[in-house]
User: Fold this.
Amino acid sequence: MRSLPLPLALTARLTPVAVLACAGWALTSGPAAPPAAAGHHTSQDSPAQSSSGPSSTAAAKSYSSAPTPCTSVPAATVTALVPGAQTAGKEIPSTDTQLRRTCSWNALKGYSYRWLDVSFEISQSEQEAQQEYQQRVTQKSGGGTVPGLGDSAYSVVNLTTQDKQQTREGVVLVRVSNALVVVTYNGSDFDTKKAPDTDTINTGAIKAARAAVGALGGGQG
Assistant:
């Protein structure tokens, strides 16, 4: 198979990560921005939520530090969601690793591109985490709740188009006590110019989020 030059959409996806690393990961609305600031949103991208899989609901706890993000998702899950990626992942530098940590996996296999971010944020109190969670849900309207995940969970999928290339991105926000888990999962096909379907992205993001919530045990204070 011939080699594929780095597409504009992929370059746009990588740029926010480089900026975050240089800025010490001053996170605002999530671990990474969508490939295009403005895209074509479709009504079909407000996903029907799935409650399949084991429940990751956690009892009320207080967390003082973030767990290691690059081991929060099993290697088999990384391989399934991001074919061709190094399962060890790459942790993005943070100004305070006790409070914020994120890991990224991405790969271009053939013409199929996938990206997964998993991040943990520890707030000073449960009330502060609740406020932050609600603010982000409001910013990412159009999705729905995810039952049986953490104390509160929300999922949204959006489609963007840049230079006729589609990218579909799913974001899952989960609050467990004073901790927030943020998962971003997206994909594109640079041969067909199409994106994976909504269910594929939504289900994959939720699967990664369930694993990440399970990893929070290591950060309990």
